[in-house]
Amino acid sequence: MTTDYNPFSPQTMNDPASNYQWLHAHAPVHYKADHEPPFYTLSKYADVEEALRDTDTYSSHWGQGPNFTPPMGMLSNAPQHTYYRRLVQPAFTPGAIADLAPRIERLAGDLLDKVSGGPVFDVHDDYAFPLPVIIISELLGVPEEDIQLFKDWSDASVEAMGAEDPTPWAAKLKELAAYQMAQIEERRGSDNPPDDLITMLVKVRRDGEPLPDEQILSVVNQLLVGGNETTTSLITNCVWRLLEQRELWEGVVADPTLIDTAIEESLRFDPPVLGLYRTTTREVTLHGVNIPENAKVMLHYAAANRDADVFPDPDAFSLDRPATRHMAFGLGIHFCLGAELARLEARLALKVLMERLPNLTLENTGERIKPFFLWGRRKLPVKAA
C-alpha cells in the first residue's frame, strides 16, 4: 500500500486532478495514515458507485465529513435521513424549481447591472456567489441584508467539517446557531409567520411533538451550505473552463443549446464537491486492501469522474462527450436534493452572462477555495470587453 498521495499538499490543493490517474493505477484504495482520524480513499468509478449504493456497509451514521460526528438531519442514515428529506422535498420538486426561473433570471440581470460600471469584475464575488445564496436565503426566509453573514457562516461550516481540529471555527458556528435559533423562535411566537422552509420545519409535529431544535438547525444548515456553496462553484468553474479555452466559450455563445452540455461537463470535470465520507460497518477487502470496520472512507467523486474506464480522454474538457452519469451529485439515497435547482441556477446564470457579455475574457485563474474536499475558485477576475 502506498502513501505517496497527499490530499493536503500544496500541489494537490492547487490541482487535485493531477493525482487521479496515479490513484487509479497505483492506489485505487489509498490509506492516509497520518491524518486524525486516518481515512481511506476510493477513486475508481465502480468502487465509488458501489459504496454510494451500499449504505449498509458504507454508512452515514458518523457524518459525511472526515471526522466522526453525530448523525443529524439529512446527513444521517435511513430512516432518519428519509424522514427529514421528505419534509423539505416539496420545495425542490420539478414544478417548484421551475417556478423559480423568472426570479433567478431577473436576479442574474440585476447582479450584472451592478458591475456594468467597470470593465473588470469578479465572477465569483459579484455574480456566482450572490445569486444562489440569495435564492436559498429567500427559500429559508432569511432577510437579504443578512446574506453576507450567511455566506461567512456557510464557509465556516464547510471548513470546520473538513478540518482535523474544527475549534478555530467554533465561534462562527455558534453565531450561526444563535442566528438560526432567533429565526426559529420568531416564527414560533408569530400568529402569522412567513411561508418559508424554516416556518414549515417549526410547524412539523412528529408523534405529536415538535422537531428537536438541533435537528431543525441541522436541516437548515445543510440547506444553507448545499444551496449556495456548491452552486457558486459550479457557475464559477464553468465560466473558468469555457473562457480558458476561448473557442469553447465562443461556441456556446453562438449556440446556447450547448449550455446544458457545458454544465454537465463542468460537473464531471470540476465537481464542486471532490468527495464525501462514509464509515464502514464491517471489514471490506477491495483491490487487495483490507479496510477495517469503523473506518472513515472518502468516496472521491472527482477522481471517479476522471476514470478512463468510464470516460474516454477523461482529462479533456469536451462539449462533444457522450452523456454518461457523473458523480458530482452523488448517487443513491443521498443524491443531492438540490441538483436540479443548481442546474437551473447555473443554466440561467450562463445564459444571462453570455447574452449580456458575449466578449467576456479571463483576466487570470484567481484563487482556490480553502476546504480540501471542495473545488472552485474563491476569486475569478474577468474583463467585459
CATH architecture: Orthogonal Bundle
Task: Look at the structure and name the CATH superfamily.
Answer: Cytochrome P450
CATH overall fold name: Cytochrome p450
Query: Helix-strand pattern, N to C?
Result: HHEEHEHHHEHHHHHEEHHHEEEEHHEEEE
Q: How can the largest sheet be summarized?
A: 5 strands, mixed
Indicate the CATH class: Mainly Alpha
State the end-to-end distance.
52 Å
Radius of gyration: 21 Å
Describe the structure.
With 385 residues, the protein is of the alpha+beta class. The protein has a single domain (10-384), classed as Cytochrome p450, CATH 1.10.630. Helix content is 48%, strand content 11%. The protein is built from 16 helices and 14 strands. It has helices spanning 10-14, 20-26, 45-53, 80-88, 94-99, 101-115, 123-128, 130-140, 147-162, 170-188, 197-203, 213-244, 246-254, 259-269, 301-304, 339-356; strands at residues 29-32, 39-42, 58-59, 120-122, 205-206, 209-210, 276-280, 284-286, 289-291, 296-299, 360-362, 367-368, 377-379, 381-384. The strands form five sheets. It has a five-stranded mixed sheet with strand order 1-2-10-7-3. β5 (205-206) and β6 form a beta hairpin. α9 crosses α10. The longest helix has 32 residues, at 213-244. The chain is globular. The termini are far apart. The mean pLDDT is 91.
